[in-house]
Amino acid sequence: MVLESFLVGEGDVPTVMLHGFLGTGRNLRSLAAAWSAADPSRRLLLPDLTGHGTSPAPQSNSDLYSMARDVVDTARAQGFDGAFDWVGHSLGGRVSLAASLHVPEAVRRVSLLDIAPGPVPGDLSESGKVLGILLQAPARAENRRAMRAELTGRGLSEPLSDWLLMNLVTTDSGVQWRFDRQALAELHSRVNGTDLWAAVERKDGPPTRCLRGDRSKYVTDADVERMVAAGCPVEHLPEAGHFVHVDAPKEVLAWVMR
């Protein structure tokens, strides 16, 4: 499956950058633009992952491995040959790890933005809580302001609500969600339950590293200890939360360039 995507940069070092759950490729555009400006050798592909943005909806059997294959198919369609670098935030990081297991010929190295290889516990999944509220919201509303009120009235913050509203499309009768919320809910349970430690702990895998936001709960101290023991270095951003690229853009740029 070929995904909706766009390119940043015109270099010859192929790199894919993958967003988190409920996001789109646009979430990493600022980081990609800064990276390309600082390192013109990069050619960066930012897809909307399966079921996200304007990409096709997930199938009933879609999982992290099929999502990784969709990214590779999209990269190949854009002229990316051989192996390339993968940078993934949250869900995007898990798709990158799945790629290193399922399509290793397409993976040169993996950089994880605040995500660990193990299954994501339900009580730690911020995206799961947001998805629950999203499922309670109406499928349509008169306008964006009305839908915003629906989300904030159910407990979402205004910034998070505005971020989700980027997934609305305008119709003759108002606005409606671009994605299939129920299909995403089913996908969410499958991808969060997958154990990907083999991608980090196998001896013949590509180089993998992680950048943790210390105010986030997605990468635990136990995760850090296990990753480091497996040869996956972990660096820390003490003042950053889960969205490390938003909280500390300069530091994240310096890290991905190293």
Set down the secondary structure blueprint.
Elements: E1 5-8, E2 13-18, H1 29-38, E3 42-47, H2 64-77, E4 84-89, H3 91-102, E5 107-113, H4 126-136, E6 140-141, H5 144-153, H6 158-164, E7 168-171, E8 174-177, H7 181-192, H8 197-201, E9 208-213, H9 221-229, E10 234-237, H10 244-247, H11 249-257
Parallel strand pairs: 2-3, 2-4, 4-5, 5-9, 9-10
Antiparallel strand pairs: 1-3, 6-8, 7-8
CATH architecture identity of the largest domain: 3-Layer(aba) Sandwich
CATH topological fold name of the largest domain? Rossmann fold
Outline: globular
Mean pLDDT: 95
Total helix count? Answer: 11
Describe the largest sheet.
7 strands, mixed
Structural class: alpha/beta
Radius of gyration, Cα only, in angstroms? 18 Å
Distance between the termini: 32 Å
Count of the separate structural domains: 2
The CATH class of the largest domain = Alpha Beta
Secondary-structure element order, as H and E? EEHEHEHEHEHHEEHHEHEHH
Give the fraction of residues assigned to helices: 25-40%
List how many beta strands DSSP finds: 10
CATH superfamily membership of the largest domain: Alpha/Beta hydrolase fold, catalytic domain
Regions with little confidence, pLDDT below 50 for 5+ residues = none
Strand order of the largest sheet: 1-3-2-4-5-9-10
Q: Report strand %.
A: 15-25%
Domain AB hydrolase-1: 16-254
InterPro entries: AB_hydrolase_1 (IPR000073), AB_hydrolase_fold (IPR029058), Epox_hydrolase-like (IPR000639)
GO molecular function: hydrolase activity
Protein name: Alpha/beta hydrolase fold protein
